TrEMBL record:
GO terms for cellular component: cytosol. Belongs to the esterase D family. Its EC number is 3.1.2.12. One of its GO terms (biological process) is formaldehyde catabolic process. Keywords: Cytoplasm, Hydrolase, Serine esterase. It comes from Lachancea quebecensis. Transmembrane segments: none annotated. This is S-formylglutathione hydrolase. It is found in: Cytoplasm. It catalyses: S-formylglutathione + H2O = formate + glutathione + H(+). InterPro entries: AB_hydrolase_fold, Esterase-like, S-formylglutathione_hydrol. The active site is at S160, D240, H275.
Amino acid sequence: MTFQIKQEIASCGGKLMKLSHTSKQTGTDMEVNVYLPKQYFHKQDQSIPVVYYLSGLTCTPQNASEKAFWQPQADKFGFALVFPDTSPRGEGVPDDPEGSWDFGISASFYVDATQEPYRKNYQMFSYIHDELPRELSHFFENRGSSKLDFFENIAITGHSMGGFGALSAYLKFYAERKYKSCSAFAPVSFPSKVQWGRKAFGGYLGQEEEGWKSYDPGHLIKTTTNIGDDRILIHQGTGDPFYKEQLKPELLLEASKGTSWDGKISLNLVEGFDHSYFFVSTFVPEHAKFHAKNLGLI
Ligand SMILES: N[C@@H](CCC(=O)N[C@@H](CS)C(=O)NCC(=O)O)C(=O)O
């Protein structure tokens, strides 16, 4: 269903659009923020690539829009940004029975749930990678003189749970080269091996671990062939309280050993940085440049 414009905010050289729509996949109203860079307004008849940013646990579309400082980078290179929500929410949406922030509302892990009671609303994989781009494309079709490219020349990135979501989707769709570029900030790198991931996969996908593999970057990296010289960029703060227990990027590196991704994952351990948006925003310029290159903008 089409979007309602909640707010249009001038930001840097462009505009942040706060939108909401009713999703068929989640059966709920969903919010999404879209940043339109200055090029969208000043250059005619050109196609603007889109970078999808998936946020982490406890987030809404607002956190990254307000604190990641992506907007100046989007203006610098000429890409748009989409900041989706982290889960369905609202009346009737089931949450974590334990009331914890690592599962349920704001913690969908971007999968299509197969288990009750989550199956009905938690269809976030299909929402993010299919319904949302189709709906956005439709909505923006006749709005400006520039075309926003939500399907072809696109990149994906994210933080923590969203870093997992980015890695997972990039690898899952790698054969068809859906996403031209992937990076992650402090991602949950091998969810089947850590408590956050095991709880999420168990709850949404069931206890049978075989069913987790098709989402888990730790497995996908072994079953997906890197056909070019594609690289994945990761930053991880060494002062991040979740680094050693939940994120474990070294496990992904280990899993890539001897595969076509060996040496293609650039894991940057950055001294002292924590898990917050002070960390994310510090490395956004490097990630922006990485995506801009892969999207042919520089
Ligand atoms: N501080 C959070 C812990 C979870 C957390 O650090 N979430 C990260 C993503 S995994 C985040 O982006 N939080 C929101 C923010 O920093 O704006 C809480 O206790 O609620």
